Write the structure tokens for this entry.
Amino acid sequence: MKIIIPIKRVLDPYTQARVDKQSQTVDLNNAKMAMNPFCEIAVEEALKLQEAGKASETIAVSIGTDKTVDTLRTALAMGVDKAIFVKTDSELNLQPLHVGKILAKIIEQEQAQLVFMGKQAVDNDNNQTGQILSGLLNFSLGTFISEFKLSDDGNSIEVSREIDSGIETRKLNIPAIVTVDLRLNEPRYASLPNIMKARSKPLETIELSSLDIDITPRVKVLSVEESGTKDRAAKEVQSAQELYNELNQLGVL
Amino acid sequence: MSALVLIELNGSEVSANSRAAITAASQLSDTIDALVLTNAIDNASQASTLAGLNSVKVIVNDELEHACVEVASGLIAEVMTSYEYLIAGSSTYSKNIVPRVGAILDVQPISDVCEIKSKNTFVRPLYAGNIMATVESSDSKILMTVRSTSFEHSQDGGSASIEELSLTMPESHSTFVSLQESQSERPELTTAARIISGGRGLGSKENFALIDQLADKLDAAVGASRAAVDAGFISNDYQVGQTGKVVAPKLYIAVGISGAIQHLAGMKDSQVIVAINNDPDAPMCRMADLIWHTDLFGAMQEMIDYN
């Protein structure tokens, strides 16, 4: 079974996002970038399946300008077999529907049966791409998963989904799209020898324009602003009595 | 311009986030219908009493008891031929389904709308809420999820008609196995007036039990930081923050939570924030209205024992 892992390069999640007022975009110039943390979990789960002898090939896919290759190399260093780089000439601010259509083409070309991806990217926080992809391909869908089990015959999977009311377990037919949540696994670090080895692993480049997908923006960003966390004039208390008195005065108890 | 609100049920109760979705819909359209996907038509009766609805459309099928996403998204896409807007409250229920409807209708959905500026212009958070973006949709239909903390919750007092739709069921690709529901007698996290939230500073699952005791005393909901969830002190459905729930209670008490930006994103709109922390430099303390620098356990015990 061939597994595809779409991954995204994002602003390092521990870096504060800043707005470039002139262009009304989030300023990513010289910013520290990293693989979206949920994508790392998706890569790890694919590798675990491969190590258990259940996957014939693992392929990471990412879309972007040349810098995106760094993120694909990270996935190769973690252990995936191959990377597919969908190259764009400029930063296009692609939306989940576009990304879904691009990934759908790649998945059809590769005839992949299983897709692991992050439940959301921590830059745009859309939480949509896996769901859209499943709709475009008419695959089964398991979102927010914290447990994954492939059936013995390899025709279905059982996933535990972390939903608002608790944990739902579903059985999904293959082909399937699975979006991963935080507690699924602890992603591995790439070791130095593997980082070296990753340089000689196959990386296929596909020009986005060759895929013939309409990427006209459906949703236009008119403006962005930093919401900031307003510093509140904090008052110190020293005892439970003092705290309760304050809260009573504020009328919140 | 007519709007369809996707109703999420907890049993036969309409969820709070669906009530927020009705309010959001009222800012966009004069005619609002609700859609209930359920396994029993009786479950739609509460929805028909919500203020602001014209009619409640119901689709009844066993597959819909646990909202099989492949079935639900196909049905909603078909119902949407008569509507311009699909509006749902932000929750794992709608986030699972709405984008797949977008794929079927070839529409780019808009997640977590916090403000409606015009018929096609909305404000939504990026980067864990550190950035607010104003976005304009050019799609012919608009699908969105809305933050339940950003819109008033529609109250009872309506009397909408109930109409059962009979549509062909789309093919299901999955089957429900089980649901392990979180049992709690306490108020629900996203609608609670008061929340006591614990972080990694508590050190262990046993210590986290003090949060429960304090919550009982104050009739508050229990929350947690991602660090506390990752450490196994409490399950993920209690997580507040970018990848958990977004809350805006009257009172938020953060115990032993340092305040990573991802956590602050989920609670910064709380009316009054209390930080109980042994580290005066924790970012949470900069956010707080009231700070108590002290030993966490002593503080919680004192609060629990106080008469």
In short: Residues 99 and 129 of chain A are 7 Å apart (CA to CA). The longest strand of chain A covers residues 140-150.
